[in-house]
Amino acid sequence: MAVLPVTGRAQTVIPDDPELIKGRLENGLTYYIRHNENPAGCADFYIVHNVGSLQEEDNQNGLAHFLEHMAFNGTRHYPDQEILNFLAKDGVRFGYNVNAYTNRTETVYNISSVPLVRESFVDSVLMVLHDWSCDISCEPEALDAERGVISEEWRRKDEPRLRMSAKQNELVYKGSKHAQRSVIGTLEVINGFKPHEILDFYHRWYRPDLQAIVVVGDFDADQMETKVRDMFSDIPARENPEPKGVYGIPSLQEPLFENMLDPQVSYHVLKVIHRQPFPPEGLRNTDAYYKDLYARQIVTYILGDRMREHSRKSGSPLSSAVLVTSPYSDDFYISLFTLSVKGSENLEEALEFYTEETERMLRYGFTEDEFEAARSQVMKKYRLNMEYFPSEVTDREIVEVCKENFLRGFSAANPYDMKQAQKMILADMTMEDVKGYERKMFGDSEKIYSWCMNESEEDLIPTPDRMREIIARTAASDIRPEYLEFEKIDFGFDPVPGAISEISPVKGTSSELWTLSNGVRVIWTPSEPVSSN
Predict the structure, then answer these.
(1) What is the CA radius of gyration of the chain?
(2) Nearest to 194 by CA among 155, 263, 147, 246
(3) What pTM was estimated for this model as a whole?
């Protein structure tokens, strides 16, 4: 898939947080340390592994996730489940303060909101991260006990909603290794792998050059850096470390027609997926990345609002129409149309609806009013319309910045500074900046068409040839421009001064309604002082 240019303007790098300490040990391990006082007296401790299920061989399918479980079942310094018992004594609870996750590209462990009650406890928490780096035990008895736990987790995921979600992921990643890795794996591997197979994965991929330690909290940052360097420098560097490899995703040379059927679903939904390139790593720490992101969201809101309005008209074949654009990791942007159809008799009409709306956008674009309304929605989506203060930045927000910098090359800016930069980027965007994105997103993108229905109704679904015919015919029809219209607000009202002529309570509240002599009505509500203002 070709990488599309993000913007024609020069890019400006968003600078990293000057108070963030970032370093790299001789063994290759990266660390991030930042003092922060929200919440006071606590700290978050993370170890981030740039490793996930994509590193698995076929006979290891599911072992990256299994290994994550084993990290809580015994390490060198904390045998059996002593990690959880030790942390619980100081109020650090599993599932609430202690957790982990695995996906295709990463595995992350966290011990959060740790009370900094004494230095020895902090040292012990760092030792837990050290063990998770290189000293997980994987004893045969513990492995066998955990097979039942993960098998039950697998069975809980075997339900219609999650099965359909898995099928959608397989469609998005059609023809790639990504489609063969469900993260949780298969029951055959979960219950049948030999101990040496999970240890082979562990020793191959859990290594310092693919790891980052992140510690953020209410401590002296220089002292914490010394602790981290002393604690983790003894992990041996891997000689001739194996490259992670490149897991390519084949381009679609033509639209893909493949349905997602299940014996337990009762709905009729048309999903159309538009797969678009994600900005390369060299742009992710610049303002160009955010201009690109916001432009995509603006176009998404405009077309989504149009479809929602048109789907509510009398005679519409749809009960709802939703459009969402979002990243799929850093592999793609996905624009996902989800059209809920009023019965199986309206399937072809639903496809016509989608084609007509996208073709209208491609032919005629959008108006200045639509642009401004959508930009306002984007501002709300990313909470750029809300006041935000440096003291409100949480440990977790800083951790997320560090994690994304390590794994995907995003800026390690302070979250407050980043929010201010994002506000300016969005405020400065013009309609000209966004024009052309409708073509990138819906014209030049790779397209996947899929009917989501009960498998018993498969015979009712139009064939791919019939769908191509409907799309071509509808796209060539006489489609006229239709833009969203907005009620204009008259700001020309200039009242004369007036005195309060009547005061009455507002029922059920502490407010009062003041009626002024000039006809203006004012609702007054007493409140406590707001400290952040």
Answers:
(1) 27
(2) 147
(3) 0.89
Contact 449, 255 (CB under 8 A): yes
User: Nearest Cα to 300, choosing from 311, 308, 312, 289?
Assistant: 308
Mutual angle of helices 287-311 and 347-364, in 10-degree steps: 130
Beta-bridge partner residues of 505 = 512
Question: Residue 281: phi, psi to the nearest 5?
Answer: -60, -35
Per the listing, tokens 């987790």 go with 153
Cα–Cα distance for residue pair 533/529, rounded to 1 Å: 8
Sign of CA dihedral 200, 205, 209, 214: negative
SS3 272: strand
Three-state DSSP class for 241?
A: coil
Q: Kindly tell me the sign of the dihedral angle through the C-alpha atoms of 492, 498, 501, 504.
A: positive
Amino acid at 2: A
Question: Which of 371, 319, 323 lies closest to 486, judged by CA?
Answer: 371
Chain segment 322-337, per-residue pLDDT in tens: 999 999 989 999 999 9
C-alpha pair distances (Å), 194 with each of 71, 153, 197, 199, 268: 17, 20, 5, 9, 43
Q: Residue 110: helix, strand or coil by DSSP?
A: strand
**Is residue 70 within 8 Å of residue 140, measured between CB atoms?**
no
pLDDT (tens digit per residue) in 67-119 = 999 999 999 999 998 999 888 888 888 888 999 999 999 999 999 999 998 99
Rounded to the nearest 10°, the torsion over CA 83, 87, 89, 94 is: -90
Please state whether beta strands 446-454 and 260-262 pair in parallel, antiparallel, or not at all (unpaired).
Answer: parallel
